[in-house]
Batch of 4 targets.
Target 1
Amino acid sequence: MLEISSTPLVIIAILGTVGVLLPIISIARKEKGSNSFYAVIAFAALIASIGYVAYQFLTDNILPSALFSEDVLVDDAFGGFFAIAMLIVAIFTTVGSFNYMRKKNYPAVYYSLILLSTIGMVLVAYSTDLVMLFVAWELMSIPTYVLVGFMKKNPSSNEAALKYFLFGALSSAIIVYGISLSYGLTGSTNIGEVIQGYSTLDPSLLPLALLSVGMFIAGFGFKMGLVPFHQWLPDTYEGAPPTITTLLAAGTKKAGFAATIRIIVLGMVVLNLDWTLALGIIAVMTMTIGNIAAIMQKNLARMLAYSSIAHAGYILIGLAVAPYSSLGLQGSLYQILNHAVMKGAAFIAIAGIVTTLAVTNIDKLKGLGRRMPITSLGLIISLFALAGVPPLAGFWSKIMLFGGALDASSTIWWAPWLAIAGVLNSALSLAYYGWITRKMYFEGETEKRVSEPKSVIAIMIFSIIFLVGFGVYPDPIIKFVEFAAPTLSLGVMP
Amino acid sequence: MSNELIDFVLVSVALLGIGIYGLSVKRNAIRMLFAVEIIINAANLNLVAFGRFLPHSGGQTLALFSIAIAAAEVAVGLSLIIVAYRMYQNIDIADFRSLKG
């Protein structure tokens, strides 16, 4: 049994209480406005949760990555790592909304839904049972359907929400079907027992087992935006309120990776190693299609949406080579943490630009470097970190990922090609990041400086410090990643 | 009509096929929502059938969870569809074209 002071339970208690109480408080206060009041409460709850996770890490109360457990939840370093990444994203979203939600309706409901969705994301990373995983997955997804359509007078927000909902509902339906097949084959819903059951499966039932793993990949792939399950993603990221796009791109996507690492990578080790080649092919397709489509975009949010698809491809490289090289999973986790900060900062910068200047078209961003200097600097630094330019943090995670792929080349012939594709794609992505930079700093002359929202400035400064600081001195994060990454080798059994 | 496990599984696979057909062919948002519901119910049927032939009740428990969650999901989905209908006077998703690129 989990203790009452274990990390996931405390996070549920803090965020759940505040999340449920916020709408009640708003009814009791009988007023519509006062966005900052609710934002401060939500922010305090998130800071308390991330503080508790950090405290548990610092006092060594967290198990090294256990991955399997008799219980439905396990309080291990892997879950804690994802909890920190997702809570950072939720804090970005909340702080960014200080400014974005001003003078908009129903702030209490908005922050309450963000908190509930955050609980879901964190629990996905901690769960070791398929029932728990499914419930957490839905707790994460259902609030985000509402949040994407939150601007209900805005046609593009509506359209984005409807598309997102249909694909999201399909993804959870496919996940339940996959769970039902694996339950029928192994007689258990505990992830450890399922994987053990698969390893001793009657060979005649193997196609069904592969079908269930395929359904898991498809179901989680919808949320992660893997090609060919990515069609909804650019529309949704463009139409949703930009703060919520932060939550989707940096948060729910990472929860998909957490679930994938817990189920698929480990299951693959036992089932059939050919699956890694399939993941490698998906990774290369996802990177290439994402980057090529991003070059052609005129809208900044849509361009970053495609770049987000491309980044899912980079992270997937690490999962594909995970059984052959320990650097693979570590690189993936490192990239996940960096991507949460980089993409979060970039989308919050967009939210700041949208609220101040009401433009997202790249052609209209001329001279942004003079109009909003701090936001522009934060945006540019996160874009170059996304491209993997040294000495920013994104460089080290890419080095680790591609190094993992090269490390695996002694066992599998196609692994170096993943690294080559990744490097080429990074170069390709520099093209469009450089284009934005040129628009912002080298075009237009007459623009005057406008006042930038303070909450956006705070996030920009935090992410500049994070990306530059841990880019120059990456040791603490690398140690943290090495501690959090599960060791995975051929023949590992629960 | 026999009462074997394979019958239930075959019905469930047929429902899965109907659901996927509905999603790929229909363009009406409510029909697509129904198609998704059919897939979820196919999974529930699977779970209950497997649970019946296994010595413990894990499958039925998950089926109950899944029914409750599907209800919540439909509530959210229908409300999104109603909002979209008020704006466009239409729920044909092929007509929602303000976002593309």
Target 2
Amino acid sequence: MALIATYAGKKRTVQLGIALALAAWVCLDAMGSGGEGWARVWARLPILLTGNASGWPLSGGFALNVFLSLCAMAVAALLGTVLGFGMLAKNRLLRVPCFFVMNFLRNSPWLVLLFAMLYIIPFNVRLFGVSIAIPAFVKAVIGLALPTAANFAEIIRGAVQSVHSGQWEAARALGYMPMSIYGRIILPQALRRMIPGWMNLYALLMIATSLATVTGIQDVITTLNTLLAMENERVIVYFYITALFLFFAFCYPLALLARRMEQSVKGDSL
Amino acid sequence: MNRTDALIELDQVTKSFGAFQVLKGISLAVKDGEAVCIIGPSGSGKSTILRCINGLIPINSGSIRVGTHEVHKMKTEKEMRPLRHQVSMVFQQYNLFPHRTALQNVMMAPVQVLGHDRREVEARARRLLAKVRLSEKADAYPGQLSGGQQQRVAIARALAMEPQVILFDEVTAALDPETVKEVLTAIRELVDEGLTCILVTHEMKFAREVADRVCFTDHGRIVESGPPAQIFDAPQDPRTREFLGQVL
């Protein structure tokens, strides 16, 4: 059989088999006792997705997770870029603290950082005599952005340093100044290697937004927990499977795309 | 040779990497238009000599002069810019910029570093690509070219800076035997045109044919130097004899 002749072919067959078996199990279960459970999930799906029973306007639920991940990624990109280039700096006084911060953030559990932000960041700040309340959402964004920024910075550093040292040498021999070597030769090559890493990181961040339930924002997990209080114990598992599937459906295509891009930037074949 | 009319002059150059002394007092003078081949075993400091001449590696002591530039006194890349204009380099691993086409590789530095007019540079680049017989590959990316083709693009890129001197660092060492010839042909033409060339090479036959002078290095010193006929046919130093006995 040509389909399973190769390693890749076998792998694909096994994956397909597992997916089909899972689907078959869910279908069988739904036809039997699970039908009622899925009906409950279906009825609650709008509120899980949007935080609103009618499905509009968006006020929480999974949509909030997506929004949270986008905000945290934006902050992380900004912070991570500064940190990443700090780690590449020639000046020790700049480089060493950046390494320290990066290592500290990268090696802290995300949940612990979230809790830390929850308590470190005050509820109110007084700025020029005006009291500004800091919503839980902002704390969640910062808490998630910190570890993401550290990983973001590592991706930058890794990609820049993975560019062959001969490129530096050749550029210097042609009379380029260090800044224009970065701008014209190193970064254009490194950027292609960063993008897949960033996409993987974003998928990880999206998954981690489920932790933000500890800040009390009305994300999909908080919504889920509230709903479950009103539900029969036997249908809980269907709700969790649904939440699991939501994250999977959002992140898996990203991971696939990232892997495909990784393949295309392997080695020197730019 | 009268030292003052030399284009390149190295005097008692030493260089250490950590505790390892790579160059232990190199003195060498190269006249304008001369082709000098540096041969010797691996790790004898051949490539380091080239990198010191264009300031890629700072030296520990001694002096290096290229034309009017005193390389050993230059500290920053900015100070070295005029030197880099005068001295080009071709590398063993080609080091073309993989995100740019062959033509762009040749054009980049003259436009971006020297600030030459783009149209004028493009004409020059196309002329140089024709010279290394790669006109039809102008729009190909380095990844699409063979090793020999990449190395010829690298030579065109070095020439586009309109240098007085080109340093060749084992430019055929990464190539397969068949493509070595096309690269050597390109270099031979440059030597014949009177461009000053310093070549680190393992191609003894080529060194004998093109070089005006051959230097044999071993353990960070120039052991022996002279016209190719003398070095290859009547080496004086026992180490030269031993080395040539192994490679020839």
Target 3
Amino acid sequence: MPSTSVALTPGLASFLKSLNTNPIDTSIENLVSLLKRRQIRHSRSCATATAYLLLRVISACRTSEPVKLIERVQSVGRRLIAAQPREMVVGNIVRRVLGLIRDEAEDDRDAEFALSEAGSESQPQTPRGFDDSSLPLDRDMLRTEADRAASRPPLTSMFSLLSHPVEDNSPASTPGTQSPRGFPGHGPGKDVRAEVLEGINEIIDELDQVDDQISSYALEHIHSNEIILTHTSSTTVQKFLLKAASKRKFTVIHAESFPNNHDATHATVSGASPVDEENLSFEAFQKPLIALGITVILIPDSAVFALMSRVNKVILGTHSVLANGGLVAAAGTRVIARAAKVHQTPVVVVSGVYKLSPVYPFDFDSLIEYGDASKVLPFEDGDLVDQIDVQNPLYDYVPAELVDLYITNLGGHAPSYLYRIVSDHYRKEDISF
Amino acid sequence: MTDPVDLAPASSAAAPASTPSQPTATPSQPLPIRDSKSATDPAQQDKKPKGKPAAPATASGDAVAAGGEKVLTPAELKKKAKEEKAARRAKEKLERESGAGAAGGSAPGGAQGRPPVTPKKDAAGGASQKGQKAPPPRRGSGPGIVSHTPVVEQKKKKDDKKVAVFGHLYGQQRRTTIAGAAKEVHPAVLALGLQLRDYVVCGSSARCVATLLAFKRVIESYDTPPNNSLSRHLTTVLSHQITYLSTCRPLSISQGNAIRQLKLTISSIDPSTPEASAKTTLCEFIDGYIREKITVADQVIAASAAQKIQDGDVIVTFAGSSIVKQTLLLAHSEGKRFRVSIIDSRPLFEGKNLARALANAGLDVQYSLMHGVSHAIKDATKVFLGAHAMTSNGRLYSRVGTALVAMSAKERAGGVEVPVIVCCETVKFTDRVALDSIVVNEIADADELVSNQLPQQVTGLADPGAHTPAPVDPKKGGKAAPKEPTPAPSASSRASSTSPLTEWKDTSNLQLLNIMYDVTPAEYVDMVVTEMGSLPPSAVPIVHRMSTNM
């Protein structure tokens, strides 16, 4: 790979290419500026970039001291978050990496210390054990498997009591994902760093597979002859619908999400080559829905209410999901969700777990980013631009009561259950690091 | 293809007339001759001119006659052969037509050969290809089939592009030119039709006023033909105009109401009234109607709606209603200090003109599109909406997107509802009812959605020629919708590079839907301000009855 990042348009691809050749500090600086300039802006691109960067950061660390690793990751994470606080996935990935390091550190200590101490110490860890059963990619499962193999008694609470029988079934329920295979038991002096790197790689794998995993639930949610309304060109939604389209016939009404995403939406709908390089370039080119015989009706955003009375289901992508069950999604989503609620149409949000943020919003306005006003009012109307205040919000906050169901790579959840998944994925001490 | 047919009789007829190029005029050889003909063009062209005398008469009759005149015994043979050939020809024709599509392209020899032969026939044939008139019976059948198959295919394609739920609304294609308009249509109406179609005259009241003014000119230039009374004949004249207008764009409720009143007035004119005075009565009626129902009504509404605005208000409005604009300007001129937030939508961007007008008047204007509605509504204190019509069940029938704005106002988080005030003249009240936006609506050309501004802007910089039409906004009465400039040449030149939708008509399963209106439930509307007072939406049917009985 020639690291001619100069020749490339700055973005995820150029960043990943330059990552291996540039020094760490340059890479961090690079990502910070990319985030600041909004040259990496989609949730998954941000998550991938963060994960790869942290992988580099940790592998470049000359120490295996968990405390030092945590400090290092925290300092990098703070810089990234400061660069673009509204890309919450960046923080999510950092938190998960921190959690990984802490888990490894505790594992080590577990091995060293007396069993009696484990009780108090692994208290925050127990929910994670529960989570492992459903999250196959989480490397913790490997650890617990190994623990059991070592006949360690980790049953420290009722949660783990229940979770252990479930674990036996977990590989079967999640085919196609990594199942625990022969893994060297953790010796007391094992390399924390290697374990963490392994964990980050699994996060990266998760990011790669998350859409496919979500789409595997599609047939449970879409029946024949449905009329489905969606919004924006979200790849997750497209894959979800494509999966369903392989078996069933239905109709998709696609609101074009003018002015921020309409080009990509038009391209998605018509199957033309993707306009949005960053969003789709590293995706395998996928067929449009129309190629599978699905009728796709493109409508302007304003026609949503008029058509909602005929829609069976609204499927939405999202930018990030908050712990209270609300979500931050492309502007216009809220009004669509509201219209659906008014018409008693179920609203389904498809989102990878990585978008699930432990941040609880008290000030919703702070989550909203405003974009380029010239998309709303082109500079051809320059006289007007001078006189009036043109607004182009990029995101909407959609309250939890407007959402009926979340479908993540772990399955379907009610919005009220999300806090549980949050506590499974992030450790308390990392929520505000 | 049709050539071999003509040639068959022609050649046989020409043989006795001593043609050098036809040494094999024996009756037993018609088939090989024709085969060779179809293969070699020069031979055909040579022979055809000789067929001239026979050709002008209708083909089939002529052929039979020619055969009969010659020798009797081979005549039967010939007939047989002809029948065979006719069948073969028909088959070939079908095959070729389906393959080549265009009739002209598939038979170059014929196209070249015929003009010198029979100018008349050729003209007829050309016409038949276009206009589907069937000149001679045989010919006619050919082109008939030809033009038929593509039409069917096109129809299929078109149907594919129609959104099934809205199938009932598609109706006929909107008129694109004034060609083919009935000759009775008055030039003023012709012009108005095009203006309506292009949204130059847009908005319910503007359309109503423009229609009435055009009809006034029709009446002024009207002369009652002899043996007819004005009260009877004028309505038929008007109905031609109305039909024409409705092919340009479906009539609005206000137009319908005004036309109904006008017709009522015409029919109530005493036949004994002299024509001149009858015409003056009608013109006065039209002027009075416009003044009473729209001009003065607007002033009354604006005055009473402006009272609802207080200092510090944040008014949200959607698209560009003339009456809302009047209200806001009036309130501003009264010295009230408030902010206006305009929400606009694709593809008409009617709010832009409203924003411009308000900003020029010095108001504090904020502008965003449909996607920003939940943000705009956040600090709103009142929502003012215009109407296309109010239905008898109290629902507001207005520009698509209005319902979303009204809904957002009513569903604001925190439980505080924003009052939604509709400004609407009673001329827009109708006795129709509507439950959803699907049964009653208007479908606009979906191509309006294809061209979007961003690509235009980008390429506009590189291509100043294409850029120029963009800023030109037709502004008429402040209501003109800045129709997106979609000039065909520029669109095609950057078709592939810009909008991925340009090919949508050829993309199967992809449909674009561009509806004009939606229906806002009555519970989202708190007040309807009319010239007869401020009412709840449930009062619409009563007011409508009152105003139509008066």
Target 4
Amino acid sequence: MSALAHVSTASGQPASPPPAAGPGRHRFLPYLLLLPGAAWLFLFFAVPLVQLAAASLYDPNGSLSTGYALTWAFGNYPTALQAYWPQFGRSFLYAGIALVLGLLMGYPLAYAIAQKAGRWKNLLLVCVVAPMFTSFLVRTLAWKTILSDNGWLVGLLRDVHLLGPDGRLLATPVAVVLGLTYNFLPFLVLPLYASLERLDYRLLEASSDLYASPLKTFRRVTLPLSMPGLIAGTLLFFIPATGDYINAELLGTPNQYMIGNVIDSAFLVRLDYPQGAALSFLLMSAILAVVFVYLRRAGTEEVL
Amino acid sequence: MRSALRPLTRRGLLTGTLGSAALLAAGGTLAGCGTKGAQQTEAGCASEDLSGTEKKLAFSNWPQYMDVDEDNNSKRPSLDRFVSKTGIQVTYTEDVNDNNEFFGKVQNQLAACQSTGRDVMVLTDWMAARMIRLGWIQKLDKSKLPNVEANLLPSLRNRPFDVDNHLAVPWQSGLAGLAYNGRVTGEIRTVDELLTRPDLKGKVTALTEMRDTMGLLLMSNGHNPGDFTANQFDDALNKLKKAVSSGQIRRFTGNDYAPDLAKGDIAACIGWSGDIIQLGFDDEQIKFVVPDSGVMLWSDNMLVPNKATHKANAEELINYYYEPAVAATLAAYVNYICPVQGAQAEMEKIDPELAANPLIFPDEAMLSKARVFMALDEQQEREYETKFQQVIGA
């Protein structure tokens, strides 16, 4: 550099500024900046993933005391699916219903906070985020108290005959879906809020100036503009909800167990590592497939 | 950006990452084929006992399983007395919350013959049996355990997984039987009532602990949980399955049935004696029932794992807790079954009411109904556990 500067001064011309994004100097900078993230991803995502893939192909007759041999036992997959397809279906069903409920509640909520809350905006946002300061487990246990057979909610529902005299909420699919909806709602609301907050109110005015009904304005202007947030929120809600097992464990019964419960028991109780790994992979690919189709249909570049 | 390099896009990065992960998968699977066996022998993992020079001991136990001072929760009278009596510094950790979870915690070290940093750990019968089977536990020197030899309850001797009584010494024992909340339902006498009575529908829980739940069911069919056949197990399991699919059984639980029973969300359950005594102190309508068909007896056992370097110190501790007076101090706090003979007389001095409680000091009649579950090998354990887990939903 100094030699170059010297030459330019010598030739009597003003020194040109050094090329900002010169090919030589900054070529590897983006990769260098990526290094910490990539290393993290490699160590805590890629390596365990490979290990899990290998474990899913272990000999199913192996045991803890003799060890497991990698025999490329692809049969683990159909066996696992055959034994546990009801729990698989249930996971997607419950997460799907919870997602619909979440959207019905979350969209108006995010819209209200972003567009209508005025000076209450920050307070309302805190209200959405504040429950996350307590542990997931504690919040789910709180629902056990709220939905308790002798609690006021069940009492009220019995009084208005929405529930039979022996009816209950706890230990039913309703409780599990409610729990899922509640626990993942903030993940849906926050990205939606971010999208809706950027929404330019003048566009809505323009739309109604052009004689669009409020419904049409929503469909043609608001919804498309909030799409990135909607998609991100949907994914952030649906993916963890499908794999969740705490809600089914605490609020449900064995008849509500989801695939997460099965994987938990395969690894910790039954010590059937090949099956646990195969189920984990099946869950992962099923979710990936759903997400892929969804993104194709929704057609967005913003998320992926 | 006029760089010669293509701009980095999110999609590009993702493709790159997935691509490298795939490459890695190929390489990785070739490199790491399978796992090694976890089977060890005590001799193969022998380690020097440093007790002579190091007056130290690391003790892992369950939470609330040790007497604490009424005024100061950080003081543990019986343990403090051991420290001052022997000069052995005890590092006491309450890090056993769940047998399976704890197994996951120490599994890698013990399978590879490495130290877990623990000299004594307390685990339930079946987990103790599994670790003994895997050769992870050191034999104790009986000559250093005269109190255990003299005072261990006869029904806890020569258990199937430790026939010679030199691997596992009970810390506390307990019963798994029936319990009910008298405010919600009438008395319950038998397992069949629990599983079929219409007024209990949807208000019954059973334990996720296979040996306790299945043991009670086996006995209700007239079979012996200490020695049963696969067909007898299947019969008992079918009985359970019927109760699950009819909606009679609401949930399978660990310790968490206790608050539900107290609130009355569940009317009756299969539960553990110690929990029910505790609940009974607050509400005498909550009662424990020993069914006529029989009751399950389990213990949490003190074990010395391989590579623990203070075995002699550990033996001294185990022997100390089998002094009747010490055992009574402990039993007065934890309220489980005290495995030490002679502690009942000592308990008279502390709290006569507790001394008369058959759930802490069971009488002959109750002990004659108590059974210990059969020792299973790994194949059996997995087969039974898988069948059971399928019925309880996972």
